[in-house]
Amino acid sequence: MTSGTALTLGPVMFNWPVERWRDFHFAIADEAPVDTVCVGEIVCAKRAPFLAPALPAVVERLVRAGKEVVLASPILVGSAREVADARALAATPDFLVEANDMGMVGLLAGRPHCIGPTVNVYNERSLALLARRGAVRCTLPWELPRASIARLARAETGAQLEVAVFGRMPLAISARCYHARAHGLAKDSCRYVCANDADGMEVQTLDGEPFLAVNGTQTLSFRYLNLVGELAALRAIGVGRFRLSPHALDMVAVARIFRDVLDGALEAGQAQERLRTVAPAAVFADGFFRGRPGADWGAGGADPPGE
Amino acid sequence: MKPLLELVCPAGTLPALRAAIDAGADAVYLGFRDQTNARNFPGLNFSRDELAEGLQYAHGRRRKVFLAVNTYPPAGGFAPWQAAVDDAARLGVDAVILADIGLLQYCAETHPGLRRHLSVQASAANPDAIEFYRREFGVRRVVLPRVLSIGEIAALNGEVAVETEVFAFGGMCVMAEGRCALSGYATGLSPNTHGVCSPASHVRYVARDDALLARLGEFTIDAFRQGEPAGYPTLCKGRFVARGRPSHLFEDPISLNAAAMLPELAAAGVRALKIEGRQRGRAYVQQVTAAFRRAIDLVAAGGRADASALAGIAEGGKTTGGAYTRTWR
Questions:
Q1: Is the residue at B192 inside a domain?
Q2: Which of A186, A202, A205 sits opposite B329 (nearest CB)?
Q3: pLDDT tens for residues A115-130?
Q4: Is the ipTM of this complex over 0.90?
Q5: Do residues B236 and B171 make contact, with C-beta atoms less than 8 angstroms apart?
Q6: Is A85 in the B-facing interface, judged by CB distances under 8 Å?
Q7: By residue range, what is the domain housing residue B216?
Q8: How far apart are CA A297 and CA B222, in angstroms?
Q9: Which domain holds residue A196?
């Protein structure tokens, strides 16, 4: 960690072949200037068994490279099997666990843990309560505006605040699988069609405008959150940790761009250009941060009304 | 003897409250006229005085009133939520329906005698999550998300020490409730932050060729040919294109109707049935409440209702057993 800031790589949310998933993390371990890496299947319990054999090697490589490893828990826990898996994860020694549902928050009571961005933390009381129960870090929900982030940072609850700054924004989770549904399949016999779309399946409006991206039971934004132009503003309001969400891109390059901006080695304008080069097909958005529709893009800079 | 299943009905206005009580509701649920509840729609909900009047009407007939304070207070903006809970205690509502853990804690500490139910907006769908809310905040009843099959509900009831309430009729969220920012992505206003989903203030209809496009913010979320029935355009019920094919990608415009499954829900240990629709009119509330009153009484007498009685007033005119029948899997 340099210059008082830290970069986190969030969990891979998509169904990548296990070899790709493993090699991606090896490259992150060897080359990416990130401080923390979250690993684990958080979207669909049916995918988890495929990653399990590669997990020990990935964790070992990351630890050896000096990365802090955080084990991310599933977003939606329903079936008896999912409940049992969550309890086993909560009992894992040696690593911080990131809770992505309230059941996991309950299971982790009294031991240091992280709160993931899919746990509803909207106000100071909620954050303080979680901190008192052992949360050392909280990645805030994707839809929080700058004013809320600033107030939560001022609350000084003892939990470090982390804010997501890059990647498609998870907007919804369901018990139903929309990848399967779009292929005319049932969830129980899905043939893992979600593996066809490394960054999610594009969903357009009826007039052909790209709108959302379906990732199995999860629905994400089509547009990519990009707050590289807001890093200075976020630091000014007291946020020191920033999260990048993995995509089928050169994520090592993405991490370098954000690291360079945090270190003062790259200006925000140049960073935007480089991100466009690394992710030429991505359409960017920063609306939630500015208190606007999440799909909006203000290119950073302009203050939202009021604050 | 406890009634078999408690019937909990929606009230967006005082006339709807009276209609629900008169038609046989055991309890009504309602919200204050502000962003503290998840149906923050124009012309809907209760002032403090109206709530007092509603309480008098309900309590005079030995029925209950639950107050939904089930959105998420923003940082620096706790006061309206605190006031809602304080006024609920002062006026004597029978329970508050909450979702935010900060508000649950405030309520448990400040008004320990005020019964707390967990809103569906907290999306507690597994025993560990429910146990967390029971242990930390003394929650007595959980409104279950509309994602569980009857078998899963039965298993859950075997593991938790709280009452459960399930949706029996009305519009459905296919996404986990309280964890959805689709509306916010298109409009900046979401259920958690503003108590609205796909708000009318951001809906526009645009005529194009022989179709009417329903636009939400800057996105087209549905299109209707001339003569095609056009329901209210809710984002997740809209039509979108995936793999080159337009469809109701997330959910067909269809309503939940569990009227024919009441014996199974009772056997699964469910304590209460919830009717969705605080935004619907008095006639809807009267009709659905009366039908479910009959259905519950029939089950208590060993019979079973069929689902046909209410098909006509369901959203989109079509109904489903939803997740209860497990066809989603």
A1: yes
A2: A186
A3: 999 999 999 999 999 9
A4: yes
A5: no
A6: no
A7: 182-247
A8: 24
A9: 6-285
